[in-house]
Each structure stands twice: as C-alpha cells, then as structure tokens.
C-alpha cells in the first residue's frame, strides 16, 4: 500500500489496548484510516469500514482462521463452513431468503409480551435483594430464556444450551486446537438434540423458529437436513453470548453515566434511542470478524491484495468524528446516524431486530425497578480481542424503589 509507512501499528494484545481499547483505537484512527496489526490491516474509520462490510470480494475469514490453526477437515471445519456468515454468492442468497421471514420486525414485535414477562420475572427475583451480579442474575438467564423461546427449545434445555453455545463459541477464537475435543463433544450433543427437536416439530409444528424452518422444507429449494441443523446452531451461537455481553456493556456504561440511567427510568419512551446508543457507544463486538480478499480489493485508494486478512473495527467506526458529533459522549437522547455494530451488506446481522427489542424492553424496566446502582466489587471482563466480549461478572448494589 502506497502510504503504509504513515499508518500506525496497533498491538491488539498490548497493555494499552487491553486497558482502554477505545483510547487506543481513537489514537490510531486519528493517524490513519487503517492500522497494521499482527493479523493484517485493521480498518478504523466509518466510511472505509462500511466499504469492507459491503464488498462481496471480502468474504468472512472463519474457515481461514481454522486453517491457520491446522484444522481443515472434520466436524469443526464443516460447521464453520456451514455458518450463514461464511456462505457466499447464490448459496448465501438462497439461505438468507429461506430464513429471513423468521426475523422480520413484525415477527419479533409479536414477542414483546413474552420478552416483557421474562424480564419482569427475573427482576422480581432480584429487586428485594439489594445486591446481585447483574450478569449471572439477569443478563445471562434473560438472553438465553428469550433465545430458547424464540428458537423453540424448552425451558429445561437452557442449561445445556448455555454449555453447548459457550463451547462452540470457542470456534471463533485462536485456541481452537487446544479446545477441539471439548467443542466437538458439545457439537455432537447439540446435533443429536437438534435432530430430535426437528423431528418433533415435523410431527407437531409450533410458533417458533424451528417450526418455521421445518415449514420451508415444502419449498422447491428447501433446506437440507444438514442446512437445517447448521442454521439452528448458527442462531443459537449468534443469539446468546452477543446479547448477554451487550447487556454487560450497557450496565458498565450506565454505571459510568448515572444521569442517563435516571433519565431512562423517568422516560422509558427513550428506550429505542437508548438501545441504539449503547450498541454504538460500547458494542460487544468491538472488532468484526476478519474478512479475506478473494481478489485484489481497492478501498480508500489502497489495494488489499488477494488473500489479505482485513479486520473491520466496528467500535472505532462507531466513534468516528467524521460521521458522529461528539462521538465519545454517551447520550440516550441523541438521534445519530445508523451505526455499524450489526454489520452491513449481505451479512447484516439477521438477529438485529430481536437484540434491539430485548434491549428496548429490559433496560427501562431495570432502570425503573432497581433504581440507581453502584459497583459492589470488581467486574470481571473477557479481553476485547475476542470476537464477542463483555463482563462475565458485574456485581452491583442498589436500593430498589417501592413498587
């Protein structure tokens, strides 16, 4: 690249990035629109990240990340290749069309009463305690309860789903070989469970995602059994940890901005704007999944050679001052330009509508029913280098107002 000497080097595993990733990204973004990393160029500014997300010649690098770790065949390689994000061309378009109807805003809106009931039930359990770990007591069970209800898994399967999705999520890290046996064991159990559930829904369809997908089998281009299984696993993995960690980011952000928490409690009609602002300001996916160039790709006057890894840094793009006014200010009353947290192009997140509704419902209820909260011990965070990260422990104390 012509001006590669002018761009900074961003050490994604260095102490500066791990201590304050947004500060490190801000410094790098103001030097150049991309930074060099050990994995390849990290694209930092909104316009260029948007271009990376929309180019069909930049495909998801999931299978390549496994190949780098020596895994090119077997159940893990097959699973990675089967994820919707890793499909391209006519195959992707066909699969997306078949499953897209289950993720319309209209369909998700019908779930509001169910989601509201789940949120109230969990808050009922913690309101009088005066202290709790908001991840363990609310974010985790809420996200998984909603997900299981949406997909069609019974409530008694939630503990298994948590273990299965947690293990399979390791597939997107850099220690796959180390955890290979664990991932494959959970994948085998989940395959068996999904096959049994699909068979049950064929006999007696319900009002859930699995039933919808089974119904598409009547179409001329129906999902195969392998595609059906892969699609269900995709939604379980993509709809669990990302949502619960996004709630963790919300808790941390509102803890640092108590006036915004009070405002949300007083004005729940700001729920939609609050949800958008939290996923812009502090996304659980700071760095998007790497893309691999299938041809020479020109962006911003520079050419990424065929085979290059390119990292779209969503968290940096969402705070680009060229696009957002006062981007480092968290303000739930703001009406900002759409962010890039849910991706873009053909791989825009299918579950974005469901995630938005979960945040819109739960955050105002928590603000109103728990009142202000303070830290009740140190939070424990996953590192920001993971595909999805957030606090795994977030202890708080509060004095819930009288009902």
Poorly predicted sequence stretches spanning 5 or more consecutive residues: none
Helix/sheet category: alpha+beta
Distance between the termini: 62 Å
Mean residue pLDDT: 89
Question: How is the largest sheet built, in terms of strand order?
Answer: 1-2-8-5-3
| Shape designation | globular
Number of helices: 18
Give me the Rg, rounded: 21 Å
- Main β-sheet description: 5 strands, mixed
Organism: Nannocystis radixulma
Protein name: Cytochrome P450
Keywords: Heme, Iron, Metal-binding, Monooxygenase, Oxidoreductase
Family: Belongs to the cytochrome P450 family.
Strand-helix topology:
Blueprint: H1 15-19, H2 21-29, E1 34-37, E2 40-43, H3 46-54, E3 58-60, H4 62-68, H5 75-82, H6 89-100, H7 105-109, H8 112-126, E4 131-133, H9 134-151, H10 158-169, H11 176-203, H12 209-215, H13 225-238, H14 241-256, H15 258-266, H16 271-281, E5 291-293, E6 297-299, E7 302-304, E8 309-312, H17 314-317, H18 352-370, E9 373-375, E10 380-381, E11 391-393, E12 395-398
Helix pairs in contact: 8-9, 8-18, 9-14, 10-11, 11-12, 15-18, 16-18
């Amino acid at each position: 690249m012509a001006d590669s000497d002018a761009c900074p080097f961003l050490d994604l595993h260095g102490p500066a990035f791990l201590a304050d990733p947004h500060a490190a990204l801000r410094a790098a973004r103001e030097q150049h629109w991309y930074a060099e990393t050990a994995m390849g160029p990290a694209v930092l500014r909104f316009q260029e990240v948007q271009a990376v997300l929309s180019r069909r010649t930049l495909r998801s690098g999931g299978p390549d990340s496994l190949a780098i770790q020596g895994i090119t065949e077997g159940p893990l390689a097959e699973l990675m290749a089967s994820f919707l994000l890793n499909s391209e061309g006519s195959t992707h378009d066909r699969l997306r069309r078949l499953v897209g109807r289950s993720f319309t805003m209209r369909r998700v809106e019908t779930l509001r009463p169910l989601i509201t009931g789940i949120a109230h039930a969990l808050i009922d359990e913690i309101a009088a305690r005066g202290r709790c770990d908001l991840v363990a007591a609310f974010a985790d069970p809420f996200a998984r309860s909603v997900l299981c209800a949406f997909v069609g898994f019974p409530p008694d399967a939630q503990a298994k789903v948590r273990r299965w999705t947690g293990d399979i999520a390791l597939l997107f890290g850099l220690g796959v070989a180390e955890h290979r046996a664990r991932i494959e064991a959970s994948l085998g159990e989940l395959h068996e469970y999904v096959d049994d559930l699909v068979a049950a829904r064929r006999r007696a369809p319900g009002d859930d995602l699995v039933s919808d997908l089974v119904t598409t089998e009547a179409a001329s281009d129906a999902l195969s059994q392998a595609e059906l299984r892969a699609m269900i696993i995709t939604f379980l993995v993509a709809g669990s940890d990302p949502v619960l960690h996004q709630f963790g980011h919300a808790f941390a952000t509102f803890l640092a901005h108590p006036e915004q928490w009070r405002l949300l409690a007083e004005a729940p009609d700001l729920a939609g704007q609050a949800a958008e602002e939290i996923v812009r300001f502090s996304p659980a996916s700071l760095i998007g999944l790497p893309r691999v160039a299938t041809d020479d790709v020109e962006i911003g006057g520079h050419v990424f050679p065929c085979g290059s890894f390119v990292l779209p840094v969503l968290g940096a793009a969402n705070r680009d001052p060229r696009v957002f006014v006062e981007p480092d200010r968290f303000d739930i009353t703001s009406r900002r330009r759409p962010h890039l947290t849910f991706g873009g192009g053909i791989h825009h997140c299918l579950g974005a509508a469901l995630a938005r509704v979960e945040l819109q419902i739960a955050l105002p209820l928590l603000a109103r029913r728990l009142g202000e909260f303070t830290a009740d011990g140190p939070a424990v965070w996953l590192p920001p280098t993971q595909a999805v990260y957030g606090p795994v422990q977030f202890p708080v104390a509060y004095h819930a107002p009288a009902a």
